Amino acid sequence: MDANLPAVAASFPWLSLIVLLPTAAALLMPLLPGDGTDPRLPRALAFGVLLVDFALMLVAFTRHFDPAEGGLQLVERVSWVPAIGLEWSLAADGLSAPLVVLSGLVTALTVASSWNIQRKTRLYFALLLVQASAQALVFLSQDFLLFFLAWELELVPVYLLIAVWGGKQRQYAATKFILYTATASLLILLSGLALALNGPFTFNLAELAARSPGGTFGLLCYLGFLVGFGVKLPIFPLHTWLPDAHGEANAPVSMLLAGVLLKMGGYALLRFNVQMLPEVHLRMAPALIVLGIVNIVYGALNAFAQDNVKRRIACSSVSHMGFVLLGIGAIDALGISGAMLQMISHGLIAAAMFFVTGVFYERTETLSIPNMGGLAKALPITFAFFLASSLASLALPGMSGFVSEITVFLGVTANDGFTVGFRVITIVLAAIGLVLTPMYLLSLCRRVFFGPRIPALAITGDMKPRELVIGLTLLVPTLAIGFWPRLAIDFYEATTNAISSELASTALVALGRFPALG
User: Fold this and answer.
1) Closest by alpha carbon to 399, among 441, 450, 342, 361?
2) pLDDT of 41-98, one tens digit each?
3) Residue 518's pLDDT band (cuts 50, 70, 90)
4) Widest CA span in the chain
5) Which distant-in-sequence residues (6+ apart) come within 8 Å of 283 by Cβ?
6) What torsion do the CA atoms of 274, 280, 284, 286 make, to the nearest 10 degrees?
């Protein structure tokens, strides 16, 4: 987000409409008739509004957004609270546009998946609508204070969705989630305020990026952002809230957690740590790669220890998000491109896996792996969808996961800024994670869907047409990107190339000072 990159103003407030429409609909929820137990009207309102919102995203980013332009586009900037420097400043570039579309798709499908919500239905769907607005605002904000307010706003619906509609340990999981994320937010706020005060006061992200502070001050800000955003990614050892949150949240909320919320952490690392603090990022890049390797291997090993389906998938998310760290740490165009593609790919795949998990949970009323078996014969279509999403997750060629992970590998390998030994060790250790992934996922499929049938499991029928449509909506893009990656890459390539060029320019200035660049 170099201040010198061109910014294209919007002739119509597309982004404001995308952000505000779901919240406006949420305010109408209390006015709906009924006692709050019938989900049909609230669900229809939420789903209809989110479909319209998703259509607005498609129109804005296909007809009014030029992917070949690396700078900010559709810029909307209005002074909101001048006394504190807060602006309603929205814009999109290659980092934000694909993630906004991903969040819109996953959130709409989350509502479509919430078919059996029977308690406090108006509140439930209102929270999903507010969450949709907050997610879009996180990705589109170009004012730090506005970004921070959106970052905080999205915590509230997730906390309530887990605490009210979660499992037996929902209060513990929700409290752990809010404690981790709220503490991390304090570090984000302090780091952002420090940057804003380091020179003429401003919250504008482009102006902050133009300063590019280094030294001890820049390092402290970088570390504050790294820990703050690392909780959401999540980075080991800041990840422990995630298995608990997934284990207790219902399946639709887990779709939202894995499909969108984790991507906020990766997006923010690119937006703040890489674009605002490029000199420090060059110094810290090897450390990010080490953290990525730890995520990949630890998450995969930890998945083996889980006897709950959702907790195992949650640990796999920790492993897969390690590839995002690897790509960001690669500091070249290919690695950063791979990180973006991994976020898009994992958002689709993880949402699909949690959705299908919810499908067979509704039929078996258990997520305990030892208490399941032989479901393939009773639920053949469900098994086919779960197997397909598992194959995508383990990076089968022809699926988006393969393209994203191989791109990250090539990004690390091709970067001659690192020593040969460092690159070899990185690839070998990351490959261990790739070997472990099919082991724990195929083991999960075998234990749940094959073997002797557990007589106590009451099966009420396979996937319904509505569920088939949701599953296909997630898996078809996974296959499409796997066979034709340009569908996703073309959206962000100009921006990731611009980021890589900025890092290269910074490296030339810093050459000789940082061993990793020598």
Assistant:
1) 342
2) 999 999 999 999 999 999 999 999 999 998 899 999 998 998 888 999 999 999 999 9
3) very low
4) 70
5) 219, 514, 516
6) 80
- The helix/strand/coil state of 91 is strand
Give the number of residues written for the chain.
518
Confidence bin at 3 (pLDDT 50/70/90): very low
Burial group, residue 444, by CB count within 10 angstroms (0-12, 13-18, 19+): buried
Tokens of 333: 């165009």
| d(C-alpha 313, C-alpha 310), whole Å | 5
DSSP H or E run through 258:
none
d(CA 88, CA 93) in angstroms, rounded, equals 17
284-287: list long-range contacts, CB under 8 Å, 24+ apart: 284/219, 284/222, 284/226, 285/329, 285/330, 285/331, 285/516, 286/329, 286/418, 286/422, 286/516, 287/329
Q: Determine contact, residues 325/295, Cβ cutoff 8 Å.
A: yes
Q: How do beta strands 8-9 and 73-81 pair?
A: parallel
**What's the pLDDT score for residue 517?**
43
For residue 296, pLDDT beyond 90: yes
The full set of domain ranges for the chain reads: 8-517
Q: Are 295 and 318 in contact (CB under 8 A)?
A: yes
- Cβ–Cβ < 8 Å for 430, 293: yes
Separation between Cα atoms, residue 19 and residue 104, nearest integer Å:
10
- Go through 146-180 and write b for each residue having 16 or more CB atoms within 10 A of its CB, e for each that does not: bbbebbbbbbebbbbbbbebbeeebeebbebbbeb
Contact status, residue 249 vs residue 354, Cβ threshold 8 Å: no
CA pair distance 66, 327, nearest whole angstrom: 24
**Residue 233: which residues within 8 A CB-CB, separation 6 or more?**
262, 265, 266, 269, 321, 324, 325
Instruction: Give the Cα separation of 356 and 383 in Å (integer).
Output: 9
Q: φ and ψ at 264, to 5 degrees?
A: -60, -40
Residue type at position 223:
L
Count CB-CB contacts under 10 A for residue 515: 9
Of residues 247 and 6, which shows the higher confidence score? 247
Question: Would the CA dihedral through 493, 417, 270, 158 be positive or negative?
Answer: positive
The helix (H) or strand (E) run that includes residue 76 is strand 73-81
